[in-house]
Design goal:
The chain has 483 residues and is mostly helical. It has two domains: 173 residues, no CATH class; 257 residues, no CATH class. Helices cover 69% and strands 1% of the residues. It has 20 helices and two strands. It has a two-stranded parallel sheet. Helix 17 links the parallel strand 1 and strand 2. Helix 10 packs across helix 16, helix 12 packs across helix 13 and helix 15 runs antiparallel to helix 16. The longest helix has 34 residues. It is globular, with a radius of gyration of 24 Å. The model has no long low-confidence stretch (mean pLDDT 90). Belongs to the membrane-bound acyltransferase family.
Length: 483
Amino acid sequence: MLFNSHVFIFGFLPIVFIVYFIFRKIDLVAGAKIWLVFSSLFFYSWWNPVYLPILLGSIITNFLFGKTIEKVSYKKIILTIGIIFNVALLGYFKYVDFFIANVNMIFETNFSLLHVALPLAISFFTFQQIAYLVDTYKGEAKKYSFLNYALFVTFFPQLIAGPIVHHKEMMPQFETLSARFVRAKNVVLGSFIFFIGLFKKTVIADTFAIYASDGFGRPETLTLIEGWIVSLSYSFQIYFDFSAYSDMAIGLALLFNIKLPINFNSPYKALNIQDFWRRWHMTLGRFLTKYIYIPLGGNRISESRTLFNIMIVFGISGFWHGAGWTFVVWGLLHGVASVIHRLWRKLAIDMPKWLAWFITFQFVNVAWVFFRAESFQDALHVLKAMVGLQGISIPPYLESLFQQIQVIPYEVTERFFVGDLYEFHKIIVLLIVFLFISVFAKNSIERLQSFRPNWKTALFIGFVTVVSILHLTRVSEFIYFNF
């Protein structure tokens, strides 16, 4: 079920909300928790009920692993088995065809692909439960009941695409569920940020998706200006798409008086790649740092080992996002950039902020090409277009200008990029406007923190809500549903 759908907004959410607080009002805390678990499982299985046994099996198995680790003396063995179980589960459903295809290519074999369907959210709930097992082994996890644990994993606002929540920040909230009644403040704040997120998804991200999909669908035909339009369109599509989901998840949880961690904080304001990753998918970065980077030695051993650890972490990050070499390359590119940034800092050379921002943003934009492209060939076509190696096409009214620049070969075309000149003008304006917004404007979390209930806010959220709902006719998945 999608957050940006009529059935969710006008059906699922109101029913779940009302019944939950009926249970809370009559002081049936266990009933309220069971209702949330049941509702979350229904939400999850709406897409495809076949995935439900996988999720349930993972929850039950990991809970039993955790309980066993608490009781036995051979904790490390059980932890190892538990981690292997989770990695194997993720590896089979997400990566088995990728490995088979590569074996066939390298060894010239002809093993048949299994065409295993990817269960929704498996990357997210696997990482959450690995963290739980590791912390249980370290004695950092409390003894949770199965009901609270199941709710921790399945809570529908964060189930499909994060944030990757940690048991320490969520389980105490599920243990107590102290708010017995509907809190008007949380309802207002939750609705405020939810509908901002819905607007980002339905109006902004899905608009940029039209141009990005068109360009990446025919990368070999792109020329210089078109290549930049396509790459920037995808950069803003994924920015507002992921920001939208993060906002909507926080808003939905607030309705139930639950606080989720912030997962997105204006990453295009970053002045270096380290700053970018402190702002983008923040809970993934937190997981990779605590459960992979630090156990590998972090920065405690030697400088060369630190740089190696950085590359390992970013390689895993890329592979976590998708079963394809383009994702691995995307991750390694960010690893190389992080290594360069670390070495640059040692030189203690100050860079103007505008230049630092420009380099960071352009690197991120170029790296997104590999993230989005279906193949290396497609990615190279887009990158070649961006540097003019696939020619330059211009609309007719720019011909007189280009005639004065005779050293640049170009072709005049009536149909420029998508549709006509109107579409060209439209996308250029959209790119400029939303570049400005993403770099200079307050983000939704900042607006949430400074929220003031007044007529201006009411008009703003009313406008955002109406426009968003009117755009629900073109329902689309969130990008991170694929991961």
